[in-house]
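re: ur question from yesterday

yeah so i grabbed the chain u mentioned. its 132 aa long if i counted rite. heres the sequnce exactly as i have it in my notes:
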Amino acid sequence: MTLRHYRTSGGEYLGGFVGASPPAGAIECPAPPNALATWDGSVWVAPVMVPETVSRFQAKAALNDEGLLTAAEAIVAAVGGTAQLAWNEAIEFRRDSPTIASLAPGLWPTNTASQNTAALDALFIAAAQIEV
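ran it thru and got these structure tokens back, copy pasting raw so excuse formatting
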């Protein structure tokens, strides 16, 4: 017997069935890549996860790629203290760090708080893709 996967018309994954009948109205589909994937109407789409950490190099390279490295360095220099030490010495940067969050308003001064959150998430996602 063959394992067959089914979803609802709205894209909710119903599971794999071997020898059992799926619920009425179920639509056969390929297996989803993971439990968080959603059906976009033609394929499963796995969500992009925001990494918890990126290396200092990856963070600075992503900022540089976006034209924001000089601004970030100026913000950190103005704050000084522990933020400056972390900027220069930390092996990795944590996405949930208050220091990282405090950079956003200076990098994107016209953004709302939620836009800054999304922009930092996008920056961390981009940074994680950078390899030495």
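noticed a couple things. The radius of gyration is 21 Å. also The chain has a mean pLDDT of 92.
anyway ttyl
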